[in-house]
């Protein structure tokens, strides 16, 4: 089907928790120096392909906000409107937040941990509201009637999809070119759940850090194709990797 609309999505660059192999969710670690470079690289790749954006969206987590800023800086479009929303936050990882992934596997077993990470409906164990990682007292969430203590991928999709329909689709309808900077599970599940029957394969939602993903949509705003724009190989060639199965 012919391409009608295009949205570019980027997972943030490497965070301190990514570097240390820690479940992140709604925790708010910064980008590492490597993550900052990855973000700048993403901007350079997008520039090389000639992408331009009129509007941008990100979460309220600094790893995504800073990645977006660095991309905008590379593209010289710091002036475009940016909407930050908790609806694009990473899925809430409950009690796993702040825990090392290998230690969690040792404690609970690989199969159980994989179920918490990738099952659509299974929620990770809930975070205690007294835990240091509980977001209920964080002022950025003061407008929410309910602050999650853990989310399944399905629950995370249920709060990101309405944002897509309320903000991204109208932006596309008015001819705007949107850039979305977010998180592995939320972006992956958002794309998959726009049309669960689509052939798009995001190989278990493990989106690489700061690799721009070009999503093409048909006239009904359903995904028709998606592909990653690869990092420069040898500093020269950017190879596109197709993710349609
Ligand atoms: O918070 C996370 O994602 P993020 O680094 O994209 O924000 C997760 O810890 C990613 O880990 P996962 O691949 O085990 O789901």
UniProtKB/TrEMBL annotation:
<feature type="binding site">
    <location>
        <begin position="11"/>
        <end position="18"/>
    </location>
    <ligand>
        <name>substrate</name>
    </ligand>
</feature>
<feature type="binding site">
    <location>
        <position position="101"/>
    </location>
    <ligand>
        <name>substrate</name>
    </ligand>
</feature>
<dbReference type="InterPro" id="IPR029033">
    <property type="entry name" value="His_PPase_superfam"/>
</dbReference>
<keyword id="KW-0324">Glycolysis</keyword>
<feature type="binding site">
    <location>
        <begin position="24"/>
        <end position="25"/>
    </location>
    <ligand>
        <name>substrate</name>
    </ligand>
</feature>
<feature type="binding site">
    <location>
        <begin position="90"/>
        <end position="93"/>
    </location>
    <ligand>
        <name>substrate</name>
    </ligand>
</feature>
<dbReference type="InterPro" id="IPR013078">
    <property type="entry name" value="His_Pase_superF_clade-1"/>
</dbReference>
<comment type="similarity">
    <text>Belongs to the phosphoglycerate mutase family. BPG-dependent PGAM subfamily.</text>
</comment>
<dbReference type="GO" id="GO:0004082">
    <property type="term" value="F:bisphosphoglycerate mutase activity"/>
</dbReference>
<keyword id="KW-0413">Isomerase</keyword>
<dbReference type="GO" id="GO:0006096">
    <property type="term" value="P:glycolytic process"/>
</dbReference>
<feature type="site" description="Transition state stabilizer">
    <location>
        <position position="183"/>
    </location>
</feature>
<protein>
    <recommendedName>
        <fullName>Phosphoglycerate mutase</fullName>
        <ecNumber>5.4.2.11</ecNumber>
        <ecNumber>5.4.2.4</ecNumber>
    </recommendedName>
</protein>
<dbReference type="Pfam" id="PF00300">
    <property type="entry name" value="His_Phos_1"/>
</dbReference>
<dbReference type="InterPro" id="IPR001345">
    <property type="entry name" value="PG/BPGM_mutase_AS"/>
</dbReference>
<feature type="binding site">
    <location>
        <position position="63"/>
    </location>
    <ligand>
        <name>substrate</name>
    </ligand>
</feature>
<dbReference type="GO" id="GO:0004619">
    <property type="term" value="F:phosphoglycerate mutase activity"/>
</dbReference>
<feature type="active site" description="Tele-phosphohistidine intermediate">
    <location>
        <position position="12"/>
    </location>
</feature>
<feature type="active site" description="Proton donor/acceptor">
    <location>
        <position position="90"/>
    </location>
</feature>
<feature type="binding site">
    <location>
        <begin position="117"/>
        <end position="118"/>
    </location>
    <ligand>
        <name>substrate</name>
    </ligand>
</feature>
<dbReference type="InterPro" id="IPR005952">
    <property type="entry name" value="Phosphogly_mut1"/>
</dbReference>
